Amino acid sequence: MKKKTIAIDMDGVLADIEHQLIQHYNKANGTNLSKESIQGLEEEEAFVDRAVVRSVLNADNFFRSLPVMPDAVESVRELQENFEIFIVSAATEFPVSLAEKVAWLGEHFPFIKWENIILCGSKRIINTDYMIDDHCKNLDYCMGKPIMFTAFHNINKTHHLRVNNWKEVVAVLNETL
Amino acid sequence: MKKKTIAIDMDGVLADIEHQLIQHYNKANGTNLSKESIQGLEEEEAFVDRAVVRSVLNADNFFRSLPVMPDAVESVRELQENFEIFIVSAATEFPVSLAEKVAWLGEHFPFIKWENIILCGSKRIINTDYMIDDHCKNLDYCMGKPIMFTAFHNINKTHHLRVNNWKEVVAVLNETL
After folding, report:
1. How far apart are CA B151 and CA B112, in angstroms?
2. Residue B126 per-residue DSSP state
3. Is B129 a catalytic residue?
4. Between the CA of residue B20 and those of A15, B40, B153, B170, what are the distances in Å?
5. What are the Cα distances from residue B38, in Å, to A19, B15, B17, B69, B155?
6. What PANTHER family does the annotation carry (chains A, B) (predicted)?
7. Count of A-B CB contacts under 8 Å
8. Which of A32, A160, B122, B128 could disulfide-pair with A115, CB 3.0 to 4.6 Å?
């Protein structure tokens, strides 16, 4: 039987961008943001100086050096047994991130083939059975079933199925088998 | 009314890869291939030494310096009035090509926004109303209506609607309006 497909986001889902963005933003901007202080804010409210955000995200090695989310590697490997996994990451806004994201996946998720990596802008034309993402701008328009991965900017959103960590992702998806 | 969507391939459709690949391959391999001598052959039959092909495609500046297909710029701009255009290019196999393809589009197609650029591997989860591509491996499994752009390797394939140039693309698509 053909496996069901899952589109998995990178930043905020496979890669822990939050911690590193706070650190780099504070350093560049002289602010004192913390994981706690930005809970429930929209990204633009949390990181007000958008020019600094752009400069941080455009810097060499930012995306290449992101830490992996807890349990992500083993969970994706486990899901791959029963689902076809596609990594679908918004990246074309920051061209320096493109090769870095492929290299990052190669290091941490070497069992994901290049055929299954998609670097995009909008995710509106991605058609998979499930989409795991932290951004409602992607989940609201996705063609399959949306699964919202908890992040500071979505904790007050309630209109998608929520998962708080990778163990919950695996539990939710295995239940569909 | 929501515009219909078109996924447009880059190599062999927007970008004239054939001429440049023949030149670089011949130079690296001491062969004497020509546009005429490879007509009707599969890519692997035309460019037999796959290691040389990989090295050519992995070289800096190969994709960045490809010529634009005749009439492509004006045609895509015209189609954009009535369709939503996505550029969908297989690129993750050659990471060096990723940023180069975005830069190439920025130079030649500055009216395409980053949101509408997709660099992928397999195109199987791309869902647009139309897909313009030269490769049957993409067209055979696409979710929308396939449109085959003529290339040396597909001239004997007859199972998709064929277009020979950009003027024909525009004519075929405008007829659907």
Report:
1. 24
2. B
3. no
4. 38, 18, 16, 26
5. 53, 18, 14, 19, 11
6. 5'(3')-DEOXYRIBONUCLEOTIDASE
7. 83
8. B122
Chain B: residue nearest A127 by CA? B125
Mutate to test the interface with B, among A89, A104, A113, A120 (most CBs of B within 10 A): A120
A-chain residues near B112 (CB < 8 A): none
Distance from CA of A171 to the nearest CA of B (A): 24
All structural domains of chain A: 4-16+68-174 (3.40.50.1000), 17-58 (no CATH)
The tally of CA atoms less than 13 A away on the side-chain side of residue B118 is 28
CB A31 within 8 A of CB A165: no
3-state secondary structure of A169: helix
pLDDT in tens, B62-96: 999 999 999 999 999 999 999 999 999 999 999 99
Q: What is the distance, to the nearest Å, from the Cα of residue A125 to the centroid of all Cα atoms in its chain?
A: 18
ipTM of predicted assembly, 2 dp: 0.95
pLDDT digits (tens, 9 = 90+) for B42-64: 999 999 999 999 999 999 999 99
| Gap between the Cα atoms of B43 and A19, Å rounded | 46
Instruction: Report the distance separating Cα A112 and Cα A119, nearest Å.
Output: 14
Q: In chain B, what residues touch A91 (CB-CB under 8 Å)?
A: 119
Nearest CA in chain A to B125: A127
Type of residue at B156: N
Low-confidence spans in chain A with pLDDT less than 50: none
Of A93, A95, A119, the CB nearest to B103: A95
A20 Cβ neighbours under 8 A, 6+ residues apart: A62, A65, A66, A67
Inter-chain touch B92–A86, beta carbons under 8 Å: no
Per-residue pLDDT tens for A54-96? 999 999 999 999 999 999 999 999 999 999 999 999 999 999 9
Are A164 and A132 a contacting pair, CB within 8 Å?
A: no
How many whole angstroms separate alpha carbon B39 and alpha carbon B124? 27
Closest chain A residue to the Cα of B118, Cα to Cα: A120
